[in-house]
Amino acid sequence: MPDDVAYFNCAYMGPMLKAVRDAAGSALERTSRPWQIAAADFFAPAERARELFARLIHARADDIAIIPSASYGISTAAKNLKVRKGEAILLLDEEFPSNVYPWHALAGRDGGEIVVVRRPPDGDWTSAILAAIDDRIAIAALSRCHWTDGGLVDLERVSAALQRVGARLVLDATQSLGAMPLDVTRIKVDYLSCAAYKWLLGPYSIGFLYAAQEHHGDEPLDYNWITREHSENFNGLVDYRDRYQPGARRFDMGERASFMLLPMATAALQQLLAWTPEATAATLSEITGRIARGAAELGLAVTPPHLRAAHLLGVRFTGGAPPGFLEQLQARKIFVSLRGGTVRIAPHLFTRPEDVDRLLDALRTAVTG
Ligand SMILES: Cc1ncc(COP(=O)(O)O)c(C=O)c1O
Questions:
Q1: pLDDT at 340
Q2: Phi, psi (rounded to 5 degrees) for 268
Q3: Under a CB-based contact definition with an 8 Å cutoff, are residues 106 and 83 in contact?
Q4: What CA–CA distance (Å, rounded) separates 352 from 63?
Q5: What is the structure's pLDDT at 55?
Q6: Is there a contact between 181 and 281 (Cβ–Cβ < 8 Å)?
Q7: Which of 191, 280, 289, 342 sits CB 3.0–4.6 Å from 314 for a disulfide?
Q8: Which atom of ligand 1 is nearest to the CA of 71?
């Protein structure tokens, strides 16, 4: 990270670790020499990536598929889950579209309804979601925290309430995994989808899908060759098979052996696991805490600490951000996002105290005009 850049935009795109860039360099060397790519290279690196992602969420490698985007994982879930007439799918207000359109399609296909949990004025998403869960809800498609401002969802309480009414839970973890702990043994989640290019600090166009064991017989989105039984035997690929490779591998995207992207994603996962999500979250909460206190002193609205994620902070101006706000920050090489009228601030472990000083100074200028 160059000294003059204050990057608070990991929720837009995570910067690439040196280890990830090194992995990309080696991968490029290898893929430019196809005679060095063996049949085993279509399988072993994918298994390694599965195993590392599984460790991040306390799942098993068998539960993990390799996918190109969060929308792909959510669409896989929507292809398999059902909502009957009179039933509903629960979504969060102003949710990211990848976790909305697949559900609109499913509701259209099955005749269900969409119920949207409106943004709670007090920032307490968990209570708002719990209040919306009733017998009608067949599926809840949620996040660990809201992508616009880090507003937290207590998944353990929500999962318990969903189980009481027999509803399914699908998660988009793109804005939380890597920077927040998540344990799928503590919640009952059916599918969890995550793009790698934000908090997993991986490359664009790859991600991971967790599918609970009961879904290992579900239909994939993509009917490709490598997910079929005995695909290791390249000489036998035209002995077409109906059966799949075990576990969630059936949901892998075509060309999942991505010789460029998988080594990069793997290098990033190794580093994230070495840091541990718990320690990352603890460090980031100090940084976002300092920004939140500084912003509150300037009269800006921030969600209280117990209702927001450690790594993602939304700051609101009364009446919206002043015109040209983002451009003024960019001119000073300070990078944040505006989402749904909120200034979204997403630091990482590279964030230094002087970066925070610069951000607070820019917010002060915006407030005082
Ligand atoms: C909550 C959330 N999910 C998913 C994504 C990316 O989705 P996809 O991988 O489908 O492009 C984003 C990107 O901003 C996001 O904020």
A1: 78
A2: -65, -45
A3: yes
A4: 37
A5: 98
A6: yes
A7: 342
A8: 10
Give me ligand 1 centre to Cα 342, in Å.
17
* 70 close to ligand 1 (CB < 6 Angstrom): yes
Ligand 1 midpoint to CA 144 (Å): 13
Euclidean distance between CA atoms 168 and 142, whole angstroms:
11
- Token look-up 């990309």 returns 24
Q: What is the pLDDT of residues 196-224, one digit of tens each?
A: 999 999 999 999 999 999 999 999 999 99
> Which residues neighbour 341 within 8 Å (Cβ) at sequence distance 6 or greater?
316, 320, 321
Which amino acid would we find at residue 66? I
| 193 C-beta closer than 6 A to ligand 1 | no
The letter for the amino acid at 369 is G
Residue 265 makes CB contacts below 8 A (sequence gap 6+) with 49, 196, 200, 202, 203, 206
Instruction: Give the pLDDT confidence score for residue 369 in this predicted structure.
Output: 78
Nearest ligand 1 atom to alpha carbon 207 = 9
104, 110, 117, 108: which is closest to 74 by C-alpha? 104
User: Distance from the CA of 287 to the center of ligand 1, in angstroms?
Assistant: 24
Q: Give the per-residue pLDDT at 341.
A: 83
Of residues 250, 215, 211, 42, the one with CA closest to residue 241? 250
What confidence score (pLDDT) does residue 31 get? 94
User: For ligand 1, is residue 16 a contact (CB within 6 Å)?
Assistant: no
Ligand 1 contact via 252 beta carbon (within 6 Å) = no
How many CA atoms within 13 Å lie on the side-chain side of 3? 0
The reported pLDDT for the residue numbered 354 is: 98
Give one word for 255, left, alpha or beta, with left for phi > 0 and alpha for psi -120 to 50: left
- Residue 151 dihedral angles phi and psi, to the nearest 5°: -55, 125
Q: What is the DSSP track for 293-309?
A: HHHHHTT-EE--GGGB-
The pTM of this model reads 0.97
Whether ligand 1 lies within 6 angstroms of the CB of 96 is answered as: yes
